[in-house]
Design a protein that fits this description.
Distance between the termini: 59 Å
Strand order of the largest sheet: 6-2-1-7-8-10-9
Number of helices: 10
Mean pLDDT: 93
CATH superfamily of the largest domain: Vaccinia Virus protein VP39
Low-confidence stretches: none
Order of helices and strands: HHHHHEHEHEHEEHEEHEEE
Radius of gyration: 20 Å
Number of strands: 10
Shape: globular
Number of domains: 2
CATH class of the largest domain: Alpha Beta
CATH architecture of the largest domain: 3-Layer(aba) Sandwich
CATH topology of the largest domain: Rossmann fold
Largest sheet: 7 strands, mixed
């Protein structure tokens, strides 16, 4: 079967669909990405065009395949201790000021395959040990959440983890698992994973001391950014910290947070 090309009209259909479902704005430059990520699904269903696949997704019985498509189109790159200044800030400026004995909670939103929440968990475990703390991690992709819960990674994805953290919180694969790493069970147990669509009303997750929403807003238009940030801030405690990606900004999105440093904000 020859390769199927995606027309501008068909790409426009997927642009509208992913915006409606997840609030993500796909620029025309993403046309090749959409085509590449969905090509195997066309082959799987023996479909002759992307329009046929779109019709499958929007049919009344297409919910399962729709989740597959959303998973494929919303997967983002991540790695352990990405943007390390945020973890330094958490370690040196936030944790030391937390009142001992009180539950400390962090939300890792759009956690993808789990490297971010496990990085956060390592920092919290260093500070609190077995004390009262938890990490809530969410993503729209069920496929990514399944991978994140497993905590099993190839070693080429673990360069950001220090030797101390590797020895303390990770198990090195042997035999058939050589060149892989498993986050140890005790640390995995402190991270709760759940599916959350940031573009819809949020579940009541409780108050958080820190929220990580990094390298996600680049996919949203300004109106969607405003709505998402407003909903998330309702679950951030007064005095809590809100962290975004270094390439992102809240200019024109929110004026209620106090900027402490580029990409680091505090709720009054």
């Amino acid at each position: 079967m020859s390769a199927v090309t995606i027309s501008d009209r068909e790409f426009g259909q997927f642009q509208k669909l992913i915006y409606q479902l997840a609030g993500i704005s796909l620029s025309p430059a993403k046309k090749a990405l959409v085509s590449g990520r969905l090509a195997k699904r066309l082959a799987q269903h023996r479909l002759g065009s992307y329009g046929d696949y779109f019709n499958l997704l929007t049919a009344g019985n297409g919910a399962t395949e729709l989740q597959v498509a959303v998973d494929l189109l919303t997967t983002n790159e991540t790695y352990f201790f990405r943007e390390p200044k945020h973890f330094d800030f958490l370690r040196t400026q936030v944790l030391g000021r937390h009142r001992a004995g009180n539950l400390f909670r962090v939300w890792s939103a759009a956690c993808a395959s789990g490297e971010e929440p496990y990085s956060i968990a390592m920092v919290l475990a260093d500070h609190f040990g077995g004390g009262p703390w938890e990490v809530v991690a969410s993503d729209i992709s069920t496929r990514m959440l399944e991978k994140a819960r497993a905590g099993h990674y190839s070693t080429d994805r673990t360069e950001g983890i220090s030797r101390e953290h590797l020895s303390r919180y990770c198990l090195k694969g042997v035999g058939s698992q050589e060149n892989t790493l498993l986050v140890e069970e005790k640390l995995r147990g402190r991270v709760s994973f759940m599916q959350v669509n940031l573009n819809q009303p949020l579940p009541q997750l409780g108050g958080f001391d820190v929220i990580f929403l990094r390298n996600v807003m680049i996919y949203f238009n300004r109106e969607t950014k405003c709505q998402i940030v407003r909903r998330m801030l309702s679950q951030l405690k007064p005095g809590g910290h809100f962290l975004i990606g270094h390439s992102e900004s809240l200019n024109g999105v929110d004026d209620t947070l106090q900027p402490l440093a580029p990409s680091i904000y505090r709720k009054s």
